[in-house]
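In response to the reviewer comment on reproducibility (Comment 2.3), we provide here a single inverse folding case reported in full, input and output, so that an independent group could reproduce the run without further information from us. The structure tokens appear first.
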């Protein structure tokens, strides 16, 4: 067993173990991948203020996200195709999150279905909704999430159409993989993945196959999904979805102060400052760089979370110190899942927790709720001087 000391260790193992198309699906952005790269590199521009001669005993990373007690303010973000990174991946990730004490978010485009995750974990989780043109299907998804006792609905706003990701197109991404000569050659080098996948509960999109008229197997799925993302999604439709749900709602994909104000006006419980991990609008600013302007716009009107680019506990701390009340990790936990299954997700959470706890202490704080801008050294031009008109 290799010694795992950081998220990059898990990333390297993930790349060795998972088929190329699924590793590339995780480790890619849209178009030139500028925003994908900036999401992580912009965290490096923020520096930490070391403080000494401070009582560092009795530290706690516990907090709340939308009123839910959490071991640290980090949730597992919704990631499509998670069950292709490792057999029954969504179930394994949900169990790891449950045991660690952080929220798990199931994607609409998951392999394991809402019902399968609920049955396997026996614990409430968040469900992420993509709004589809098939309104009956969308309404049914919401009812299924209610029946599964999901504790929050995460409505993703930044995927009305799919950003072009060159690697996915070149790899012929599909679930399960289409058996081309290129794919077969790669799968022949991934025996442990293949053996585990043979015993998986399913290898297609569990929330869709069998729940949509005319889609009974994967051969019909690609044509359906290509035509289904709702181009007409607007704030009125978001309000109706929130009303249909009737519970706690998180609006994900906010990258502009005006949109943040609209989300707060609708009465969302939280927003997620996110650019979809750099997978949608390439050339957009990184999430961490726009976070201050969004916090300035909405203040305490709505709880603000952040995702995109987090690869360490120090990144989590920087987001919290800037003012976010919570964070989401996607790739960081998927690396762990692809590398070592459920144990790998747990290891990713342990790594991030240890980095968060130790960095907090060396910054002179004992509680995550006490973190603030006073813990950071922020470049004068960090937010940038941008002209919008």
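Designed residues, in position order:
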């Amino acid at each position: 067993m290799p010694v795992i000391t950081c998220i990059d260790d898990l990333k390297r193992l993930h790349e060795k173990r998972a088929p190329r198309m699924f590793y590339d699906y995780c480790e890619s952005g849209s178009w030139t991948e500028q925003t994908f790269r900036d999401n992580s590199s912009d965290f490096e521009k923020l520096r930490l203020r070391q403080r000494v001669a401070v009582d560092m005993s009795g530290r706690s990373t516990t907090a709340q996200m939308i009123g839910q007690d959490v071991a640290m303010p980090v949730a597992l973000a919704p990631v499509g195709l998670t069950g292709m990174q490792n057999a029954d991946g969504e179930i394994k990730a949900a169990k790891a999150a449950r045991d660690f004490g952080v929220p798990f978010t199931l994607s609409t485009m998951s392999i394991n279905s809402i019902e399968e995750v609920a049955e396997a974990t026996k614990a409430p989780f968040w469900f992420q909704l993509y709004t589809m043109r098939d309104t009956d299907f969308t309404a049914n998804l919401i009812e299924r999430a209610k029946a599964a006792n999901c504790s929050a609905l995460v409505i993703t706003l930044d995927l009305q159409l799919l950003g072009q990701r060159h690697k996915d197109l070149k790899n012929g991404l599909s679930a399960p993989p289409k058996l081309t000569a290129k794919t077969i050659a790669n799968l022949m080098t991934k025996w442990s993945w293949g053996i585990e996948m043979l015993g998986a509960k399913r290898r297609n999109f569990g929330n869709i196959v069998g729940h949509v008229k005319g889609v009974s197997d994967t051969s019909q799925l690609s044509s359906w999904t290509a035509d289904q993302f709702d181009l007409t999604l607007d704030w009125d439709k978001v309000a109706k979805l929130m009303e249909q749900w009737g519970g706690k709602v998180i609006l994900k994909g906010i990258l502009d102060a005006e949109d943040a104000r609209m989300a707060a006006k609708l009465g969302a419980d939280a927003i997620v400052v996110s650019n979809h991990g750099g997978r949608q609008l390439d050339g957009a600013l990184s999430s961490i760089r726009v976070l201050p302007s969004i916090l300035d716009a909405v203040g305490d009107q709505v709880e603000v979370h952040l995702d995109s680019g987090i690869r360490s506990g120090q990144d989590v701390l920087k987001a919290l110190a800037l003012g976010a009340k919570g964070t989401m990790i996607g790739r960081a936990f998927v690396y762990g899942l692809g590398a070592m299954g459920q144990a790998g997700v747990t290891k990713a959470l342990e790594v991030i927790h240890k980095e968060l706890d130790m960095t907090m202490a060396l910054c002179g704080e004992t509680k995550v709720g006490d973190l603030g801008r006073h813990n950071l050294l922020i470049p004068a031009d960090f937010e940038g001087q941008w002209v919008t008109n």
